[in-house]
Queue: 2 jobs
Job 1
Amino acid sequence: PSGHQGLLVSSHQSFLDYHMNQASAWERTALMRARVIDGDEKFMNTLKATLKHLAFETPPPDEVTACEEMDGIRTRVKDELMREDDTHFDLKHGAGGSDDLDAIIQHAQLMNSHTIPRLRTTNTFEIVAGLQVEGIISEEEFEALSSALHFYRTLLSRVRLFTGHATRIFDTESPYAEKIAKIMGIESVDKLVEMLEQHRKEV
C-alpha cells in the first residue's frame, strides 16, 4: 500500500484501512486474485476473511471511474511494453490480447461479485461460466470469452515451453512456430495467426 512511500510490511489493520478507504479500482482487482500462502494458522484465517471481504463483499467503486482507471493503466502498459511487428505478436499486451481479455472478465467480476457469491473465485474459467449463468453476459459472449481464454492460455504455455522462459511474444518465423501449430491441432502457422487475429477482434 502507498507505493514507494509505504512501509515494506504493513499491519493487518493498516492493510484493512488502506483498502477500505484509499485503494484504487485496479488494487481491488488485484485482491480478487490474491492468495494467502503461508504463516500462522490463526493469522492466515483472519487474512483470508479480510481478503474475501475486501475483494468480493464490499460494494464496487463507481463503474465509470473504474473503467477510466483501468483503461488508463492498460493504455500505459501497452505504450511502455508492447512490441510487435509483422512476425512478432505480443500475446499479452497486444490489442485484444490476454491482458484485455482478463480486464473484461475482472471488470464484470468487480461490478457483480458483491451480490453474486458464485463469482467469488480466483478461477477465471469459473468466473466466465458464472457470468453466463447469472445472465450478465450472453451465450455468444460466453463462447467468445471462453474460447479466447483457452486459446491464449494454450498458446502462451506452448510458446514458453519451447523458448524456455516466460515470454509473451509469438515469433512466427521461429523454428518452433510450426511445431506449436501442429501441437495445437492447427494446420499451419498462417492459420494459427488467422485464429489469433480473430480472437483479438472478438475480445
Job 2
Amino acid sequence: SINNNVSWNRINTNGSSDNHGIMLNSSADWNIFSYNNVSTVGDMSYGISITAANNTLFNNTILTAPVQWIVTGENTFNNFTNTTFYNADGSIRLFDTFQLNNTQNITIAKVNITLNRTFVNSTNLTYLNISAQITLTGITFQDPRPIVAFNNTNFEVCNATICTEISFASNVFVFNVTQFTIYSSNETPQACGTINASTTLV
C-alpha cells in the first residue's frame, strides 16, 4: 500500500530463515518509516528488505544486530536519514541522507562492528562514505584516541580534520568522523614529566 506512516515500533523477528524486520514489495510506494528499532534472527534475515518500493523515507532507524542489514531490489529508490547500525560492540550512526538505488546489499561483512573496530566498505558502498558518529563499547584504555587505517591495514592517529572526539565514560568511546574506512582506538601516550631537582635514575 502507499502513503503510510509507520513510527515508534520495536520490531523483532523469529524463525529459521528470511525473517525480515521490514519488508516492502508489491509497489509499496511513498511511505514513511520513523523511529523504528529493528532486529532479526534466522539465516538471510535482513533488518530492511525492499523488493518493489520507491520514494519511501526511513528516518531515525536503528538496526539492532540483525542477521544482515539492508537489501534492495532492481528498479527501487528510497532514502535513509540518521540510520544507526548497532550491536553489542558499538554502533555506526550515519547522520546524513543516503539513497539506495536499484540492487544493493548492505551485509554484516560490508558494514562491520567488532570489539574496538568499525568498518564500512566505502569502495563497494560509496553512498555510505559520509559523516558518521562511531561508538565503541568495552574500551578499557585510560584515555583512548581514534585511530584510522586508510589502507585497511596500517593504523595511524586520526587527525582532527577527520575525527572529533565526543566523549569517553564507562568504557564507551564516542567520536565523529567525516568519511569511512576502518576506525579503532588506542591509548593516548602520556607526556613525560619534568625533573626539577638532582635525581638518580636506576
